[in-house]
Specification:
single chain; alpha+beta; NADH Oxidase; 3 domains; seven-stranded antiparallel sheet; six-stranded antiparallel sheet; 17 helices; globular
């Protein structure tokens, strides 16, 4: 069936040149309304999969020198729980080996799946539909085992290697990074919208932003495993990101699908909480961008067919956001208040959790989890009062994503609707936005600092599945949830560009759930298909100020025994 979009007139987003003059916030609101799924119709997409136009999952730059990274040896014994302990690991020196381990945990292939002669890769960073629109880059100083000059590199995941896109004078690198701790480097992310639009049509922009958030999460956890930290450089605008990553070099992308700039972040080793240097000199960025660039992007699909111009419109409207860095976290709970006691034990190593993460295809409808496991997962999603709890220290803003939960199978907890206010100061605001008859009851067994509340008891398995596009997986897990964003206020305070940041935060929440589920011996799955406004109705949200941005389900997985699992990189070498 071809899915059609019947957008209300007041939110119509046209596609002619005149609409480019609309205020950016209006473009965002129009796009978001247009791309909502409803019981009676879905957001516009092709309605079927045109396999002849399926995009190549691997971007390569033909002609760019490839530096193959040494595959890290397996068997690292670092416990997963230690990643959350500040300054617990001795930071590794910056080297080809540490860069390799960082990328292995952040963006590499983790396995190949095979069924009836067809194979497809899985990656450390999850993606909607396993389509992987996100491309990763690193900007490194000169390193003996990589290159004798500072350079910009595209990460080629299939080869586990770095494609040299540009190199430049060491003095430019020194000046560009002068405000940062010694041994720092930069990472960047871009999106290829076509990879998602091929399957999901106009809603694809949302999914690309989810994936950026997941990738930011995988990079933060990867950094923690090496003793490093990451900080989003929120004052670097989209034009500068495009310059840094070489995405504005039109000649290098002739005939190929363009990559759209998303973010750049600093990876650093030393303890560093300073606000200085969170921006980059425009003059130095331009000087670096004027260096020689290598390689031309490969074509992912021979032709595209249907175009989705509203994606380009919302992308243009959300290029830059205004973020108030270093917001106040003093009223947030401490680790002891969130967990009852610091978590200093766990079942698995960081390597097993990170590289073993999988998205559950279906849930068994039977597995229940202990209340302590559920509380621990929820507590991991709330920053602590020092503002430096991992992975939330990567973001410079207070949480603006909160959880509306459907609890199905958590031992010793009533089934029903719950809410987790990830910013404790937003409890009353959420209460006012939701149904007046909700209980807002604290559970006796819940750590007193965890802002988790029972709203209403009942069996919501069928409803959870119904609002998630009828997908049983939302009702068959131990719990599922919708991520409720402070939507309109964010656009007012931070600008239209923060629309992306809300999805990034949602993706980062999802990444924590993915890894915490693995640590608990169960599985999780992100759900991008849900009926937006019916979700709001469940929680009594009638104002457009709050919007559902992502769904998730966690529980006991049903493994598909028909599939064969193959190693990510065979014979000890990247493929």
């Amino acid at each position: 069936m071809v899915m059609e979009a019947n957008t209300p007139p007041e939110f119509t987003l046209k596609t002619d040149r005149d609409d480019l003059d609309l205020p950016s916030e209006q473009v965002v609101v129009a796009y978001h309304e247009r791309t909502k799924h409803h019981y009676h119709r879905y957001a516009a997409s092709l309605g079927y999969l045109d396999w002849a136009k399926q995009p190549d999952p691997f971007r390569r730059y033909d002609g760019a020198p490839l530096v193959r990274l040494p595959l890290p040896e397996e068997g690292r014994e670092l416990p997963f729980w230690q990643l959350y302990v500040p300054n617990n690991a001795v930071p590794a020196p910056l080297s080809a080996d540490s860069i390799s381990l960082f990328l292995r945990y952040a963006l590499s292939l983790t396995a190949w799946k095979q069924f009836e002669g067809t194979t497809w890769p899985l990656r450390a960073n999850p993606s909607s539909g396993n389509l992987h629109p996100t491309e990763g880059y690193v900007l490194l100083p000169s390193m003996d085992a990589i290159h004798d000059r500072p350079g910009v590199y595209h990460y080629a995941s299939k080869a586990h290697g770095l494609e040299l896109r540009a190199d430049f004078d060491p003095s430019v690198w020194a000046a560009l990074t002068a405000a940062f701790p010694e041994g720092s480097f930069l990472v960047g992310l871009s999106s290829i919208f076509w990879r998602e639009a091929w399957k999901y049509g106009e809603r694809a922009f949302r999914y690309c932003q989810h994936d950026v958030g997941h990738a930011l999460g995988t990079m933060r956890f990867a950094a923690a495993a090496i003793g490093w930290k990451i900080r989003l450089l929120d004052r670097v605008d989209s034009a500068a990101v495009a310059q840094l990553l070489g995405l504005d070099h039109v000649a290098d992308h002739t005939g190929a699908e363009r990559e759209h700039p998303e973010l750049v972040a600093l990876v650093f080793r030393e303890k560093w909480a300073s606000d200085r240097g969170l921006c980059l000199s425009k003059e130095l960025v331009t000087q670096m961008a004027n260096s020689q660039w290598y390689g031309t992007a490969n074509v992912l699909s021979p032709e595209h067919g249907v175009d989705w111009p509203v994606i380009d419109q919302v992308a243009a409207a959300t290029k830059n956001s205004r973020i108030a860095a270093d917001e106040e976290f003093s009223r947030f709970p401490s680790e002891e208040e969130l967990f009852g006691a610091p978590v200093r034990s766990g079942a698995f190593t960081a390597e097993k959790v990170i590289l073993g993460r999988r998205s559950a295809v279906s849930m068994d409808g039977a597995t229940a989890i202990p209340a302590a496991t559920f509380f621990r997962m929820m507590a991991r999603l709330v920053p602590t009062r020092d503002g430096r709890s991992m992975p939330w220290d990567a973001l410079p803003w207070r949480p603006r994503i909160h959880l509306g939960l459907f609890v199905h199978r958590v031992n010793n907890l009533p089934t029903g609707l719950y809410v987790l206010a990830r910013d404790p100061e937003k409890v009353e605001t959420l209460r006012q936005a939701m149904r007046p008859e909700f209980l807002w009851q604290r559970l006796p067994s819940c750590p007193h600092g965890l802002p988790l509340f029972l709203l209403k008891e009942g069996d919501y398995r069928t409803l959870a599945a119904s609002v998630s596009c009828g997908q049983d997986i939302a009702g068959d897990g131990a719990f599922s949830l919708g991520m409720i964003a402070e939507y309109m206020d964010s656009l007012v305070v931070y600008g239209a560009g923060f629309y992306r940041n809300l999805f990034w935060e949602a993706g980062l929440v999802g990444q924590v759930l993915y890894l915490e589920a693995e640590e608990a011996g169960i599985r999780a799955t992100g759900i991008g298909c849900y009926f937006d406004d019916p979700v709001h109705e469940v929680f009594g949200i009638s104002s457009r100020d709050w919007q559902s941005f992502y769904h998730f389900t966690v529980g006991g997985p049903v493994e598909d025994g028909r599939l064969t699992t193959l190693p990510a990189y065979s014979l000890g070498e990247a493929g």
